[in-house]
Write a structure and sequence with these properties.
The protein is mostly beta strands and 230 residues long. It has one helix and 17 strands. The protein has one domain. It starts with a helix and ends with a strand.
Amino acid sequence: MRTCRWLFLLAATTAATGARAHDFWLEREGAGLTLRYGHRGGELLPIEQARVRSVRCLEKGATRDLLGGASFAPREVKVAGRCGAASASYNGGSWSLTPDGEVNRPRNQVPQAVKAWASRQFAKWVDPASPDARAVLGDELELVPVTDLARVHEGDKATVRLLHRGKPVANAVVAIDHKPLAETDDAGEARIKVRSRAVETISATLRRKVATPEADAEVLEASLSFEVAR
């Protein structure tokens, strides 16, 4: 029964987000972090500056804003500084599915819309060696490591917890590279096998029904990136 529910949830999420899911992630580069959107290891898509709503850094228990000092390029955003953990949020706006494909406009502006959804994405990066790695940063949707990631190597399993506004989310699909690997339990936790030997990105999707003129659903996506132990 649990497997059937998982497959149903996955199908519903895929239908809401369309056939071409896009990643939103943070990774370390040099002395700072870089935010990217698109397909990890493949095509990068433009990042609209006005849609990046926050970039925050947690270091030694203190949080500071990085958005004000961010450097925007067409397909990436760079921030300087050392962080034990960092997060960013992106408002993708409303999307409508039409017989001709997807358009980035709300349902009430697309007469031929079949369905519509509001998209928001949240990216998180943690330094496994930092005491801040397992801290909750407070994003609307957030993946939090439960396992000590400093001890996780390629092929090991790691437990993550999915929070929505600080509360655990059950029955959410957790994936790597858009491949579903687990479903969160009642504590919001899922155990995932790490597949990368360099940097791993785990993602989770939460779909909720809404009844507004703009959309039928909200689709929230969260990613968690970290460097794998060697």
